[in-house]
Design a protein that fits this description.
With 299 residues, this protein is an alpha/beta fold. The chain has eleven helices and nine strands.
Length: 299
């Protein structure tokens, strides 16, 4: 008797679930795009606050991370941050179809633009670094307002259809995108070698990284920012994005890091990434509800 074989999990994800998920996201984005920006953002916030806590694994991980980062806060305080985080993430998702519109209006306040223009005119490559705080897509987008082009290195979503949709939105906002991987390293080296600029988010766990303090605990942190800055003598400029009220934001271009070379490359890389993590931690402590707490940052 012949045994019928069902497609394996990878096949089902690639050919069944991913297309279905992509179709749902496409339909939702099309509907959200019909709403005014403020209404879309508010609706996303309400749905995020209601539906986010129902997603068990991310919610459990976020609660665990909050306890690690803020052991001195009460459970009630951490639960309040968690609820506000889900509202914020719901707004982020609902604002994606409106991202180009948000970028081109007065909804984005820019602080330190003169600093950005000044170092850009000096002709050295710049690595802009940020974190998954506020609406992180707006960081590199703002540079386009002042003619400062950069290539953003990003991790594509697992779903190729969602990646295509979000990538088109980002590219319409003036971003040049480079998917993270072996090829991205080669392209990044070439970009900096010819004087170009990069944009990197530095707050995600990297299995190949180095242990660097983050909220008082060692966290595996990708060293690529420090390695590239040391190799190419780049500026490393922190760019912070904060949500102010609804779909309005402040983007702050902070002074570039002073990078010192002691002759011990390993120690220099660790020193740079320690300062980078400290900067990101300070942003999160000020607005903890705007960070991506469900990420498995500490392993």
């Amino acid at each position: 008797m012949r045994v019928r074989r069902f497609p394996n999990k990878a096949w089902r994800e690639h050919w069944l679930w991913h297309p279905l998920q992509g179709a749902v996201v496409w339909a939702v984005f099309r509907l959200i795009a019909l709403l005014p920006v403020d209404r879309a953002s508010a609706l996303g916030g309400r749905l995020g606050r209601r539906l986010g806590p129902l997603v068990r694994t991310p919610n459990r991980r976020a609660r665990h991370n909050l306890a690690l980062a803020f052991p001195d806060r009460s459970e009630a305080d951490r639960e309040a941050i968690l609820g506000d985080m889900w509202e914020h993430l719901g707004r982020v998702v609902a604002e994606y179809p409106h991202l180009e519109r948000i970028r081109d209006t007065r909804r984005v306040e820019i602080v330190g633009a003169e600093r950005l223009v000044d170092i850009y005119q000096k002709g050295k490559p710049i690595i802009f670094f940020g974190a998954h705080v506020g609406h992180w897509e707006l960081g590199p987008v703002v540079g386009a307002r002042f003619g400062v082009q950069s290539t953003a290195i990003y991790r594509p979503p697992n779903n190729r259809f969602v990646d295509r949709m979000t990538r088109r939105i980002r590219e319409r906002c003036g971003l040049r995108l480079l998917a993270r991987g072996t090829e991205s390293t080669r392209v990044a080296l070439a970009e900096l070698g010819r004087g170009g600029n990069l944009a990197i988010l530095v707050d995600q766990r990297r299995a190949y990284g180095i242990p660097v303090p983050f909220f008082g605990r060692e966290a595996m942190t990708g060293p690529i920012l420090a390695q590239l800055a040391l190799r190419f003598d780049c500026y490393a400029m922190p760019v912070r994005v904060e949500r102010l009220d609804g779909p309005t934001y402040r983007v702050t271009c902070h002074p570039p890091l002073r990078i010192e070379r002691t002759g011990d490359r390993q120690a220099d890389v660790l020193a740079v990434m320690t300062r980078v993590n400290a900067i990101v931690e300070s942003w999160i402590r000020e607005r903890p509800e705007q960070w991506l707490w469900p990420h498995r940052r500490w392993g």
